[in-house]
Structure formats: C-alpha cells, structure tokens
Design brief:
Blueprint: H1 2-37, H2 48-62, H3 64-91, H4 94-97, H5 107-124, H6 126-131, H7 139-160, E1 161-165, E2 174-177, E3 198-201, E4 207-212
Antiparallel strand pairs: 1-4, 2-3
Length: 233
Amino acid sequence: MKTSSGRGALISTLLIFGFVLAAANATGLSLLIEHLENPDFTLVGAGFTSKIANAVSEISGRFPGYFALFFIAPIALFALAAFFVGLRRESTPATAIEETAPAAPSGDRLAPALQLLGLLQQEGRLIDFVEEEIDGYSDDQVGAAARTIHSGCRKALHERMQISRLNDAEDGASVEIASDYDPNLVRLTGNVHGEPPFRGTLEHGGWRVSALKLPELTGGDPSIIAPAEVEIP
C-alpha cells in the first residue's frame, strides 16, 4: 500500500511540474513579445489576469510553433517521465520494494525438539504438571506427583539419549580452570578478575548430550505434542 501511494504521488508531482513549467513559459514569453511589440504595454493596473490571458491567446494564434515548443513540449516531457517512472516501479520485484517479513521458524528445525517434548509428556506427563495450578496443593501432594513425573521423564531421556557430565568432579569440589579453557564448556561466576588459570569451587558439573536417538517421524503436525484423549464407553 505504501509503495503504490508513493508511486502515485511521484507521478502526480511530475505532471504538476510539467503544467507549471508550461504555463510559466507561455506567460513569460508571450508577455515579453507583447512588450517588445508595444513598449507601452504594462501589467500594472486593473485587469492583471485578463492582460495575461489576452497576451497568451494572441501569441498562440500568431505563433503556433512557439506554443508547441514552450507550452506543449514541457507537458509532454513530464508526462513521458511520469509514464516511465510508473512502468519501472511496476516492473520492480515486490521483494525489493516491500519490507521483508522475518522468516517463520522451519517446521523441520523444530520437529526434533517438539518430538522430544512429546516424549516427555507421554512418559512423564511433564506438560500436564507444568500447566497445572499447584498453589492449592500441599507440599506432600506436589512431592508425590513430582516423584512420578521424575521417573517418567528420566526414563524417556535415558532411553533416547546419552547424557554425561562435563566435569566429573563432585559439586562443591575445588577445581582448577586452565588458561586455555573453553568458555562454552565453563561459565565463570563470582569474583572473576585477572587472567587464567583460576581456582574455584565447582557449583555444577554441566551436562552434554553425546548421543540422541529419536523415533522416526511418521508425518502429521509436529506441533501436536499430545493428542486429546477420549474414552468411549
């Protein structure tokens, strides 16, 4: 919509300039000729508009070539320019003149994550637990439910992926960070200053997925992580 209105405004501006230039040419040159042929001719006084109109009318009749050159030519020139502007903009691909919308996430890229989420729901009812309002339940009730969810989610993960710790030391142990450590594998916290090597306390050993085996997708919408269940009596 913005592109179409901008093109129309530009074409209209070109046409208006053509008419203004033509009118200025016709008026100025006709008055010049009138003044040269009649030195007493002046615009001062009454009938200013009529004097201009009479001068233009008289010159257009006496010198038709003048009118074609100084009046019709500017209009034709700007009309031709407006035509080519519209033709060029219409032939421009829409992607080059319209704002590019952000690309939607690919279904193929999301499918494995959604599939794993569906398995966690299937084995451990993880989504049911997260979406449940638990403020009205006691800690004992939440704890009992969490034990069941933990068992199911652990089973779903261990059956389909191999998970190992990045640092085998026990949490709380004193560890040394080498000078060539990988920031992707170790996140430093606390009072970090100076250059490595560092020595600190292991707060969390980190996790790495070293193997992943998901069931083969059989089609359908991957965003459906759990179908509705209906029991027929």
